[in-house]
């Protein structure tokens, strides 16, 4: 298993925290987390970084508004402005490490950010993996999404524990890790200023989450979508909608899987991602 370090970099006037491993490898991957309460790069991608860091240079940033990244002085931003700021975080890390082009793997909000990165500067994005990604049409916000975005209406550790269980199809897959996940995320959420900040990170109009079809059909990158069939936060309809418009794309739907395929179906997720990103000669050995 590869090791990684947690590093700091000033981006857009605030300190960005990110995990970094596999330095010196020929290709780089950015793993981009979602918007769940207390989300950050390591809680989403810890085990994935250890495996993929064996052959890729890997990064997992804490997006502004999440994790241990510093809260900027100006937080009066629209959802699109927050998204652009997160794209700039990734590009600043790339520039700092001399990386001209990288693969992007985005979960949920991280998928939306990945597609916005292509709209901002497509030359920086190689292949694209969207896992449980937002950005496509769905029947509407689910009850689970409403509870998530309204977490601070009942900011208890019990409420957070329920949310973490709902992210997966079967919480037994989390084993003993669930309490450490809940505790770490809860401590992050209780940081000064988070109660006021977190609700403002989401769009007032759900339509703002959608990537316009006119933009999707201009995505030239090879794109793999992975989606849990039982995802209650971003229904599989989102990836099916994206599939209609992204020209060079494919979709794999995993049964008995919720929003965290990289945890619930870890071996399958790694297999699919590695085969998609790698040349045949570079596929990880079993």
From TrEMBL:
Its EC number is 3.7.1.9. The keyword Hydrolase applies. The lineage of its organism: Bacteria, Bacillati, Bacillota, Bacilli, Bacillales. Signal peptide: none annotated. The keyword Hydrolase applies. Transmembrane segments: none annotated. This is 2-hydroxymuconate-semialdehyde hydrolase. It comes from the Bacteria. It holds the Pfam family Abhydrolase_1. It is an enzyme of class 3 (hydrolase). Residues 28-139, 215-266 form the AB hydrolase-1 domain. Keywords: Hydrolase. GO terms for molecular function: 2-hydroxymuconate-semialdehyde hydrolase activity.
């Amino acid at each position: 298993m590869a090791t990684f370090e947690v590093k700091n970099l000033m981006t857009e006037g605030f300190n960005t925290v990110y995990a970094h491993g596999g330095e010196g490898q020929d290709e780089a991957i950015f793993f981009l987390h979602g918007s769940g309460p207390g989300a950050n790069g390591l809680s989403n991608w810890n085990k994935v970084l250890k495996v993929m860091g064996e052959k890729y240079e890997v990064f997992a940033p804490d997006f502004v508004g999440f994790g241990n990244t510093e809260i900027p002085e100006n937080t009066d931003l629209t959802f699109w402005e927050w998204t652009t700021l997160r794209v700039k975080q990734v590009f600043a890390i790339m520039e700092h490490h001399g990386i001209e082009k990288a693969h992007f793997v985005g979960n949920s909000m991280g998928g939306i950010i990945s597609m916005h990165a292509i709209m901002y500067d497509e030359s920086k994005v190689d292949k694209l993996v969207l896992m449980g990604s937002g950005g496509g049409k769905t029947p509407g916000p689910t009850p689970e999404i409403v509870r998530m975005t309204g977490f601070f209406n009942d900011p208890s550790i019990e409420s957070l524990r329920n949310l973490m269980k709902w992210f997966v199809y079967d919480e037994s897959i989390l084993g003993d890790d669930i309490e450490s996940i809940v505790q770490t995320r809860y401590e992050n959420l209780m940081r000064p200023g988070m109660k006021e900040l977190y609700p403002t990170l989401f769009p007032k109009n759900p339509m703002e989450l959608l990537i316009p079809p006119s933009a999707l059909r201009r995505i030239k990158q090879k794109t793999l979508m992975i989606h849990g069939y039982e995802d209650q936060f971003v229904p599989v309809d989102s990836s099916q909608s994206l599939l209609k418009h992204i020209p060079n794309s494919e979709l794999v739907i995993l049964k008995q899987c919720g929003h965290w395929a990289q945890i619930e179906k870890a071996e399958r997720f790694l297999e699919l991602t590695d085969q998609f990103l790698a040349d045949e000669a570079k596929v990880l050995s079993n």
